[in-house]
Amino acid sequence: MTSVGTTGNAATASILIAHEVGLHARPSVKLTKLAKTFASKIELSLSDAGPWIDAKSIVKVMAFKAAKGTTLHFRADGDDSQAALAALVDLVRRDFDEGHGDG
Question: Which residues touch 65 (CB under 8 Å, ≥6 apart)?
Fold first, then answer.
């Protein structure tokens, strides 16, 4: 499930976590590193009503402990907000690029 909305320079999006162990250490690092590549203010929540945390803060994102099956809600404000949320939603959709077996 993915939803996206925009108003001016602000954008919102949500996506279901399918990663087997949720938003643990490696996915958290990947998410925050990607968020930091954008100038927009990017926030993350487990509910569209909040509370919201800074998606660029590894400490806050790791403390979130979002499990598999949780919907992540993103909101961004800035000139690149739409691109930022599109990239973050795509990262989650790609299972944080960890969807490969152990080989």
Answer: 22, 23
Q: What are 46's two structure tokens?
A: 């487990």
Residue 24 bears catalytic tag:
yes
**Residue 10 host element (H or E):** strand 10-16
Predicted model pTM: 0.87
CB 75 within 8 A of CB 49: no
pLDDT digits (tens, 9 = 90+) for 4-23: 555 668 999 999 999 888 99
Contacts of 100 by beta carbon, 8 Å cutoff, 6+ apart? none
DSSP symbols for 45-80: ESSTT---EETT-HHHHHHH-PPTTPEEEEEEESTT
* Catalytic hit among 19, 24, 73, 100: 24
DSSP code at position 92:
H
